[in-house]
Amino acid sequence: MSPTPSARRLRLGLPRRVFSQVLLMQVAIAAGVAVLATGLFLAPLGDQLDDQAMRRALAIAQTTAEQPQIARDLQNTPPTPKGPVQREAERIRKATHAEYVVVMDRRGVRWSHTDPQRIGGHVSTDPGRALAGKEVMEIDSGTLGRSARGKVPLRDSHGDIIGAVSVGIAYDSVRARLLHAIPGLFAYAGGALAVGALAAWLISRRVQRQTRDLAFSDIAALLAEREAMLHSIREGVVALDRTGRIRLLNDEAQRLLDLDDGVVGRTPDEALGEGRTADVLAGRVTGTDLLTVRGQRVLVANRMPTDDGGAVATLRDRTELEQLGRELDSTRGLIDALRAQDHEHANRMHTLLGLLELEMYDDAVEFVGEVVGDHRATAEQVTEKIQDPLLAALLVGKATVAAERGVALWVSDRTRLPDRLVDPRGLVTIVGNLVDNALDAVAGTLHARVEVELRAEGRTAILTVRDTGPGIPVEHRELVFTEGWSTKKPPAHRERGIGLSLVRRLAERQGGTATVGEADGGGAQFTVVLPEALAEPAPAPALSVPSAPQSAKEESQ
């Protein structure tokens, strides 16, 4: 079965492998360079040889014309084959291996020639310029064929022109020299081509290893697929080169890190500023599924080194997952609070039922009043000190959860916070995270206690949360605000090390600070200062002054 025309065209085309294509192109380039160099060398070589031949002919003619005996013999003897001029000219021709040496008078009559029969005849070419006193170099054809010629005037002892000397060198001998030089030139060109082919083979082998013997079309397709994949996946991808500079980042990475294309070629520290995110991307923090916070986003980063000394980092947005985790924690806290209330309510109902069965009605009434009064007193105590409903509700709920966990949650007597918060939700997040952290710290300790203090100084809100836990060592008091750092075992649904970092970021976003120190009597004390957290108080309404009563006289009118 004969191959189809398309198969024949494919077979005659370029090979598909990069190795073969690069080798073929390199050999073609080397051959082209060798041919071009040879041509560029041969082209001026012919001109140089012609010029050398003409200058040689001119030099022989000048040397001949400078002999005074030839000028005297030209004036005193006739042009004969055996005359002194012919003998001297032939001697010079044989000594210099010239094609001919012709001496002529002013009429153009030859006094010497290679062919003695032509002596006494007129020259075949115009000697006018030489007889006019000019020296002539040319390639021309005469009676002896094509030759390189040199013509000079012949002068007597007084300097008057009495004739001319024409010397020729056969042009075929010049061409023969050129042709004789060509094999050597091609030998050099062939050697250069061989060296170029060897270098091309070595380069092609290196390219073959680096490209894994793929075709150029495959490489182009892989590049296009990579670009499409990088910009379509919903994970951030950041590639760094061996110097630690950003080589590329996809659209999702730009969104998550809030960057633009101008950061390509810069280091993570230059693009992001100093912080945990830059440390993770630069490889100064190692590990898998590293948590970091960028703006209001919680990111999970993984970094993988590449063979060329660079690295590729992937980023996933865990903000929604962290929010869901915190909502789950809140839900679990609410469930714990409801469970505690259910247990407490059941115990109280059993007590009330026992009092009623014993017909101790007065004691039952007193017991119900005490129970209702305690709950009302707790809620009223919080709402009296904290007038913002969100914060008050949060602390009432946290008090119930704390009671279930055997922790006493107190609101300090110094707490006074008006209902003028600019960002109540942000403060709720800060208070909730600090209280949860304190409850975790005092869990399982004797006489566990957490105290919350919220007060306003002008427009500044100051939050202090103290606990009776083991406290935080001095060397760890800055680390606790770092993303992903925690001394507690993470729950199944999310990782720890985010709450305190968010507290500091929320505080710094409002121009405030978040610090930790040692509480009085031991334990930890977290302090958050939020300038401009409270709005200006509304101006008091102006009181209207009642008009004076009209007199009786006026009323009668």
Automatic annotation (TrEMBL):
Nucleotide-binding listed as a keyword: yes
Statement: the UniProt record of this protein carries the keyword Protease: no
One Pfam family matching this protein: PAS
Membrane-spanning residues: 21-45, 185-203
UniProt xrefs under InterPro entries: HATPase_C_sf, HATPase_dom, His_kinase_dom, PAS-like_dom_sf, PAS_fold, sCache_3, Sensor-like_sf, Sig_transdc_His_kin-like_C
Catalytic activity: ATP + protein L-histidine = ADP + protein N-phospho-L-histidine
GO molecular function, one term: ATP binding
Subcellular location: Cell membrane
Compositional bias (Low complexity): 538-549
Protein name: histidine kinase
Organism for this UniProt entry: Streptomyces bullii
Occurrences of domain Histidine kinase (ranges): 423-534
Superkingdom assignment: Bacteria
Membrane topology category: Multi-pass membrane protein
Keywords for this protein: ATP-binding, Cell membrane, Kinase, Membrane, Nucleotide-binding, Phosphoprotein, Transferase, Transmembrane, Transmembrane helix, Two-component regulatory system
Annotated spans, Disordered: 538-557
E.C. numbers: 2.7.13.3
